[in-house]
Amino acid sequence: MEGATTAVAIAVAMIAAATPLIFAALGELVTEKSGMLNLGVEGMMLVGAVSGFAVEATTGSGILAVAAGAVAGMALATLFSVLTLALLANQVATGLALTLFGTGLSALIGKSFVGMPLPGLPHLAVPGLSDLPLIGPLIFGHDLLVYLAIAMTFGVHEFLYRTRPGLILRAVGENHDAAHAIGYPVLKIRFAAVLFGGAMSGIGGAYLSLVYTPMWAENMTAGRGWIALALVVFATWKPARVLAGAWLFGGVSILALHAQGSGVAVPSQFLNMLPYLATILVLVLISRDRTRIRLNAPACLGRSFYPTV
Question: What percentage of residues in the chain have a pLDDT greater than 90?
């Protein structure tokens, strides 16, 4: 029984660790499906984290804090959109600059909040269900954002593959010239997709500072934005695979921490490297199957659109 309880505790921690990755990766997936490549996920997550924390610390409202994280992510996404869609700046360079900008801006905004603890968002308590042994904490003992992340996974899948707007967005990502020729507003569609990606990254960052580790520290995302970018490729641009991949990487992170706590005779630095080593290994293995990547990646990914009329 004790072993089962430990396994459930690890699974619960794994789900929590995966949640910010799910939000950020789903947002980037929709962005890339429209043909835009935004490498500024890390910066948007950091700004979302500090904004959510600041609002929670000053107002005490968790809902406003999450909304603030989303708005902050959208603000940086708007900057990216203006530079790449209106001014036709290089998307890769602009995304990298956005990460650097978000890192510095979040450190500046959060300077007065460093080390300040917060109670964090409450976990759900379903009478008669949350107290069930093993199943209760595993299924009914999470916070609302965990369930929102899972719901968004299925929502994004339904939007992309079961709705007309989703079909149009994918068409823009596959061939923006053809989509423009039949009358679709390519720039507006891509702008909306980038804003959605920014909002999701901001919520993922807010989850880190409000739930996962309810405090603010500089660079607290610790590379999760880059892992989210890798997850999109790992999932071959499929929302359901994003969920599975995020849980996989979340599990690697938690198992590394559990190994440290159990006194495993392995240097802690190596254990801390495991999530990132796993990311690199997965990308190397996936990149060998160039046909699958070519078939699933949007054909116009990273290409600027020049309207002719």
Answer: 63
Residue 43: inside a domain, yes or no?
A: yes
Q: What is the pLDDT of residues 32-64, one digit of tens each?
A: 999 999 999 999 999 999 999 999 999 989 999
143 beta partners: 123
- Evaluate if residue 1 carries a pLDDT over 60: no
Structural domain total, the chain: 1
What lies within 8 Å, CB to CB, of 54 at 6+ separation is: 68, 109, 110, 113, 216
Q: How far is CA 6 from CA 210, 211, 249, 264, 289, in A?
A: 25, 21, 19, 17, 37
Q: Considering the domain boundaries, does residue 306 fall inside one?
A: no
Cα-based angle 18, 20, 25 (whole degrees, multiple of 5): 90
Q: What is the pLDDT of residues 168-190, one digit of tens each?
A: 999 999 999 999 999 999 999 99
Residue 126 lies in a domain: yes
Element (H, E) at 207: helix 186-207
Answer yes or no: are the C-beta atoms of 112 and 64 closer than 8 Å: no
* In-domain check, residue 153: yes
| Closest of 273, 262, 212 to residue 14, by C-alpha | 212
Task: Name the pTM for this structure.
Answer: 0.93
Alpha carbons 219 and 40: distance in angstroms, whole number: 14
Q: Domain range spanning residue 51?
A: 2-296
CATH code, domain with 222: 1.10.3470
- The label of the residue with tokens 């060998």 reads 288
DSSP string, 112-135: GGBT-----PPBP--TTTTTSTTH
